[in-house]
Amino acid sequence: MAxxxxxxxxxxxxxxxxxxxxxxxxxxxxxxxxxxGLRLQREPTRLVSIGRDIQGREQWLQPRAASALRxxxxxxxxxxxTLQVVSAFRSVEYQLGVLERKLARGLAMDEILRVSAxxxxxxxxxxxxxDFTTPGWRALEEEFERSPAFAWLVDNAARFGFALSYxxxxxxxxxxxxxxxxxxxxxxxx
Length: 190
What we know:
Elements: H1 13-26, H2 32-36, E1 48-52, E2 58-61, H3 63-78, E3 84-87, H4 92-104, H5 109-115, E4 129-133, H6 148-156, E5 162-164, E6 180-183
Antiparallel strand pairs: 1-2, 3-4, 4-6, 5-6
Helix pairs in contact: 1-4
C-alpha cells in the first residue's frame, strides 16, 4: 500500500512479550514502567512517510501526527525557522537493538535508561514522536534549547498538538531532551 511503512512492527502479543523479556534479561528492571511512571506504548497499525531525516533515511509517523507535523513545519518555515527531523517512529525491536548496542559499548543499564526509554516504553513506538534539530545545531544535544527552532517550538508547538516530553526534572528520570516532542491527539470537538 502506498504511503504505508515497510517496517517491522510487533503486533503479535507473544512476539512483543518475547522482546520485552529479552530487555528484562539484559537488565531492564521488571518494574521499570511503574517506577518511572511510563506506560507501554502500542505500535500503530498504519504509518505514513514524513520524508527523510538529516541522515537521508525515510521516517514515518501515524497519519494524524504526520499531518500535524506538516502543518507545524510549514508554519515554522513562514517564521524563517527550519525544523529538521532526526528520528520519528522506532519499533520495539529497533529500540532493543539500541539498548544492546549501548551495552556492547560498555554503558551501564542505569546510565542507558537515563537517556533512552526501555524497549516497549519509548514514545517513538507510538508513531507520534519526533526528534528535531535545525541547521547549524548538533543533533540530539542540549544546545538545541538555544536555537531559534526550540524557541519557536516552545511558543507554537502546542497549536499543532505537540508537547515537550522530557523537560528538565521530569518525573520519568529521563535526561532533559529539548529535541523530543510528541503529538497528542485532541479530543473531537462537539
